[in-house]
Amino acid sequence: MTTNAYIKNYPRPQFVRKEWLDLNGVWDFAFDDGKVGESEQWYHHFPKGAKILVPFTYETKASGIGVETFHPVVWYCRSVKVPQEAIAKRTILHFQGVDYKAKCWVNGFMAGEHEGGYAAFSFDITPYITYDSENSIVLKVEDSQSCTQPRGKQRWVDQNFECFYVQSTGIWKSVWIEYVNEVRINEVKITPDIDRHMIRFDFQLMGIKGKDNLRLETRITLKGQHVKKVSLSADRPWITVEVHVFHEAGGPWKQCLWSPESPNLFDVEFILYEDEKECDRVYSYFGMRKISIENGQVLLNNGPLYQRLILDQGYWPETHLTPPSEEALIEDIDKIAAMGYNGVRKHMKLEDPRFLYWCDVKGMLVWSEMAATFEFNDQAVSRFTKEWLEIVPQQYNHPSIITWVPFNESWGISTIGHDVRQQQFTQTIYHLTKTIDPYRPVITNDGWEHTVSDILTLHDYVETGEEFLERYQDKESIVNNSISFNNWKYAFAEGYAYRGQPIIISEFGGIAFQTDMGWGYGNQVNSVEAFIERFRAVTGAIKATSYLSGYCYTQVTDVQQEVNGLLTEDRKPKVPLEVIREINLA
What we know:
Blueprint: E1 20-22, E2 25-31, E3 50-54, E4 73-81, E5 90-95, E6 98-99, E7 101-106, E8 109-115, E9 121-124, E10 134-142, E11 170-171, E12 175-180, E13 184-193, E14 198-206, E15 214-222, E16 225-233, E17 238-244, E18 266-274, E19 277-286, E20 291-294, E21 297-300, E22 303-304, E23 307-312, H1 326-338, E24 343-346, H2 353-362, E25 365-369, H3 378-395, E26 401-405, H4 420-436, E27 456-459, H5 465-471, H6 475-479, E28 503-509, H7 528-544, E29 548-554, H8 577-585
Parallel strand pairs: 23-24, 23-29, 24-25, 25-26, 27-28, 28-29
Antiparallel strand pairs: 1-12, 2-3, 2-4, 4-10, 5-9, 5-12, 6-11, 7-8, 7-10, 13-14, 14-17, 15-16, 15-18, 18-19, 20-21, 21-22
Helix pairs in contact: 1-2, 3-4, 5-7, 7-8
């Protein structure tokens, strides 16, 4: 099952145009440890020799280089032929993810720059290209081992340690070109409202100045059947349209809501006309779903939602943070579902949009989590805030995303328990996120000392069900900071108190088999039977604690030295998937 406009490997499946060019593949590549590339004008005369397979970073085997040593500056170059028929259009160069600071030249002309390793960005390269001939695209990327840049699980020293892995430098997501008209739809923000049976589209249009005969048409279908067509004058750059998807107050419309059990998706086309001439056509989709909190419960479509999540770091042995293929993303989602989980906490990584697409299609819930900095100062605050405010709008339209997680375990805010500045920072990010998206819960410090937060989440790697039940038998002692919930952390920072939020155990388990090759949480087990017994006991204890609204098990797969996955790094089950499923669904 896919949406109507699905194109395999299309990098941005929430906003599809048919005219595009995939630039993934072999590029020229060079290290620049001496930082001489700009002074020597490599954008005019690129040093020949090395090759790299984009979008895999040089640290990965799949890139064709496989060198894990940190290099602060790398360069890329390739030529692109732009067809003559594109001469009347704008040529947009897209980067889905480049870590960390990118500077781009086209035919020797500076086309733009961007800072931030996880947000997508693009440059209009029309002024710099020639048609029906080769065009040189050169990209310089600067990375660092600074802890003031959002880095997530990427190490900042020369060797892996604890739960931090090989860094990712350079292009690590898709690169592509699309050809668009001057007059076009630049973005659409899609907001469902199931209580009013409506969908809201917030459009941003480009190139409309001086035009007085533009018309914007929206066509909605469901499973190939016509639902609604709306047409209106496009006389300003920002336009909001609300469309009644269903008029009846009850009945069949409820069968068309989006949920893990029934991930219904509406297809939608946005067409911009000048007189009767088509200027732009964009394909998208949406899910009619609502996530809310009432009376200490998380609700999906106004009904209680018990979340059975699993931590997903999104690493592969040959490609690290970059998915090896679209099929690999689908395989992960299918295996997660086969184990009885209804969602993932995508940990310390902003995943490929194709992953979110397949979560939308297959009904997999997602917590979207920002990559952490590991220092707190003005530069870290600025970098974090800027990139997070790019990411939230880019991911907003995905119905699978039901929670935002900007901070985890006090990373980058290590003294939040008593430091008023760090507390105010988390409050600021909370309210900024709510300004962009007031419809999803926000967790400000997942697992540890919370400030303002819509859900209270706790991390606890207790090994036995008996110990868990004893520790969590008295809810009030946990939420009122009378006891530390995991023997060393408290639920709330100083000055903050429990306000009746839902409570979720958002990290637990992490069980590893006996090995000298890596680590897990607690004692390692020496048999499948021992693993299942411990997994069943702790999971069962959480489910038996009535005031909890769900859990998140650590984790889907092994990741480098962290060997506590239910699957190996190459996605082989360590225990039968059906046994995990039976325990989760019991």
